[in-house]
TrEMBL record:
Protein name as annotated: DNA primase
Alphabetized Pfam families for the sequence: DnaB_bind, DNAG_N, Toprim_2, Zn_ribbon_DnaG
Lineage: Bacteria, Candidatus Dojkabacteria
EC number: 2.7.7.-
GO terms (BP aspect): DNA replication, synthesis of primer
Cofactor info, note text: Binds 1 zinc ion per monomer.
Top enzyme category: transferase
Record keywords, A-Z: DNA replication, DNA-binding, DNA-directed RNA polymerase, Magnesium, Metal-binding, Nucleotidyltransferase, Primosome, Transcription, Transferase, Zinc, Zinc-finger
SMART domains: TOPRIM, ZnF_CHCC
Cofactors (names): Zn(2+)
GO CC annotations on file: cytoplasm; DNA-directed RNA polymerase complex; primosome complex
Organism whose genome encodes this protein: Candidatus Dojkabacteria bacterium
GO MF annotations in UniProt: DNA binding; DNA-directed RNA polymerase activity; zinc ion binding
Position of the signal peptide: none
Amino acid sequence: MNQIEEIKEKLDIADVVSEYVQLKSSGRNKFGLCPFHKEKTPSFSVNSELGIFKCFGCQESGDVIAFIEKVESVDFPKALEIAAKKAGVELIKTNSAEYDKNAKEKKLVVRLNTLSATFFNYILVSHEAGKKAKEYANKRGLTKEIIEKFNIGYAPSGYENLKKFLLKKGFHESELIRYGLLVSKGNRVFDKFRSRIMFSIYDEYGDIVGFSGRIIDNNSKAPKYLNSPQTPVYNKSNLVFGLYQAKESIRKEGFVIITEGQMDVISSYKVGVKNTVAPLGTAITDLQLKKLKRYAETFLFAFDNDSAGEAAAFRAFKIASELGVVSKGITIPDVHDVDELIQTDSKKWQKAIDDAQDMIIYLIKRVSKDVDLTTIDGKVKSANLILPVIASVSDSIRKDYYLEELSLYLQIDKSILRKEMIASKSSNQHGEFIKTQSRNVKKDERRKEDYLLAILIQYANKVGRMIKLIEPSLFSEKDDLTLFTKIVEFIEETGGKETKV
């Protein structure tokens, strides 16, 4: 018996399918609504004896590994890996030594993170050192169910709590430093996370790949959030907080709600809106949205009510438009963010979701808060902000519809808006060409970039979330872009504030 046969032998396909589909027995088979197409009458059949599934509606069929491959939107090797994990079978890799080395390293990091999460959770739930943190968790509405579902914990005060725990497990200090659990400073090595509520960061397959730690003392001078550094398994630009917990609900509901923060996701989950996620990092990336597109073709965005939230909205809608998904905006009434809205009145959150508006209407209304649309200057400013987003829409019918809506709101002829959109796009492309050709001779532009970087470095503690407003494309030199990226990472990890041991 080879490994694939062993995995299929150990797994009951009905048990695996039941993780995604509600099944009911009917004779020798079990039936449910197909996860691969929309239907009202169950036509999706599973037979445990034969180890196969078959949908009589869309004709999808196969064994347990094929089901995982399809439902998780992964290739065969990844589906096999997921199936092996469910079956408790250790896969024997026959690939190159380099592949084995990378796989072992990733497995080590996940094991370290899993043990650390267990430690943090124990401190919060069962240890005296977590008493204050538990009071904070109760105050924020972090119920026992939520703490368990999201594997929330607490990193206690003191410098060697996690260090001692992991060293006793046989790990090396150098490993713990390399993978972001310890910090080396001078001749001291100590815990990176201290006095923080710890949120475990999962990938979509259920592996803990990193952490985000939040201070519980709002008067502290320490940064509000502290995140894991990049590791072989943690790349924030490709990770989505809450996706592992939300993916079944996303498939069931047919759309995903994208918020800005982790507490937005958790609060939403707590009140029953479980198809909610948030990006890791300061801004939504195309990699994150591409990942979400595997699970749903409709995105509902809920951005904070501030200038950074507005900038995030334009960026997110532009990326989503390029991907060809349906995008809508959720207006958060009266308060700053989703978490605050739910704390105030959870019913208003569901109403806000129900009232989500098409992307173009949402953007127009968002812009109109700061712009007087009765004036020509206001109309021009609004058009200049919104037309680049419409230009990025891949579907020509949808693009025409958006232009029509913008025309109605601004009371500007659609043909004029179309010409302006085309001219603007052409101008941008021409501008990029000129910039590329003249980088080496425009020293004054370099001086501006250097000056901007100098300001960001000097006043990092005052920049905060406004860093989202600066586009990386402003920097023409690779070294400048690298430095800007490091500044962004510093502000994300420290809030721009100096950290002291």
